[in-house]
Predict the 3D structure of the following.
Amino acid sequence: MSEDFHRIKRLPPYVFAEVNRLKADARARGADIIDLGMGNPDMPTPQHIVDKLIETVNKPRTHRYSASKGIPGLRRAQAAYYGRRFGVKLDPDTEVVATMGSKEGFANMAQAITAPGDVVLVPNPTYPIHTFGFIIAGASIRHLPASNGPDFLRAIEHAVQHSIPKPLAVVVSFPSNPTAMVADLDFYKDVVALAKKLGIFVLSDVAYAELYYDGNPPPSILQVPGAKDIAVEFTSLSKTYNMPGWRIGFAVGNERLIAALGRVKSYLDYGAFTPVQVAAAAALNGPQDCVDEIRAMYHHRRDVLVESFGRAGLPIPPPPATMFAWAPVPEAFRHLGSVGFAKLLIERADVAVSPGVGFGEYGEGFIRVALVENEHRIRQAARSIKKFLTEYADGKDNVVSLPERASR
């Protein structure tokens, strides 16, 4: 009776657990840890959105059960957003479902469309729910090295030719968490054409579509003519409006997939609290200056991070989008792996980052740095890292291998 349950056995040990434990231990000792690990926005939700929540929560009728697929006003607001932002027309009744964050949407879509043994193609590294949502649902995962060009298309075709049974779907995610990689509309056109040729669905994650810095706004796969025949796209208000704890996201696109998701959700939940949904609609329908301000804030933090960490001796390639930077582990510490290096930064520099391997095996050798502290704290982190790296280079801080450290 002590054996793990079937679905729990399919989940590997949580890669971030040891880093999180060290972070908690250091704080318990009084250390001032600068946490650049979890992508948890540190700024408040815009006031007009909060005001709408307060206004709505004072109406007793809104305290009743809500709608699992989202209240009509919220679904109409999301359809209007797609029309303004992407030029994509959506039917709010049949092509839009409100979810409790894009993470829940992905997980329940996996439950809705996956049979045990189905194969799903997932980029690697990627946001963990893209993989584990399907693993929990009983699917088998075939990882494709993440890229935004012909190599990824060839990998899809090769995987379909050499997988039994034939894959059900492929996941694409741009701008990407963790790598911040972006894709253009021509890439999406090729993905749609290939998916139709191979007879597979496309599940697209554009949760970071409004956090972009060095060019044109990222597109939606649904801008491709005919994409709705085979594609569903997931979005979130968490980062766009500083609303992570509100848990509001969406799945939009293919009617058959949206209906399947809506049916599963009808058995599992009654949707988010109605005042939260009303306030989310106000976010989408209201003034968008706040989105520009949030984007500008992350842009400035990105520039401070790249400049200050570069001078500290930890080069950070400037991410073109998202609230994350994806950086290689310095050569001198590669033997420790991304988890080992992340642990060292906590122990020696009071700085927390996410180890790249937590996002998939091809993330090994990298760390993800979140832009969730202000510019002063980012510079403080850079000074601490510079001090540690300087002491290591001068031989004052002897970094030993993880097995040696564990035996002490």
Observations:
- The CA atoms of residues 41 and 101 lie 14 Å apart.
